[in-house]
Amino acid sequence: MIYPFKKTFTEKESQLIRFLSGIRVFERLSPDEISLFLPYLHLREFNQNEVIFFRNDPSQAFYMIKSGRISLNFEAEDDYEELTIVHEGNALGDNALLLNTQRLYTAITVSEKAVLYVLPQVNILDLFEENVEIKAKMMTSLSEQYNAYTQRIFREYRSSFGFFSLSQTMKD
What we know:
This protein is α+β, with helices and mostly antiparallel strands.
């Protein structure tokens, strides 16, 4: 069936929609649903060793890496442990999709430059309020992502012979 009134996108919008559809939390959304986020995206450039956010900062934005590499670090007793390095096509700060959260890690630019799309939390929450179906789809993707993280924690725990107390991770 041909839809004569189907929304069309500019080439730039189409490229951005394709980019966002590759980000896990957007994977279930249609192009029309993703397009609702486009007016709120801001491009931001970071230099090497520049902190994007610190652990315990309020989670006020969601970041998607257009180019560059970002180190995610956990701070423990005046020392940093690198958790991973994320690169273009990945996202960080996904807990900005949740109200009243704080950053769990510190994000630092490790490439010479990094260009990130920034999506403010206030805009995400407004879109969630207006579009419950979008919220449900994105929360399903976020839940699957957190489930995968939890599975990796358990797998690592088993392979490390219980080096830490797993029961401590399950307490509120």
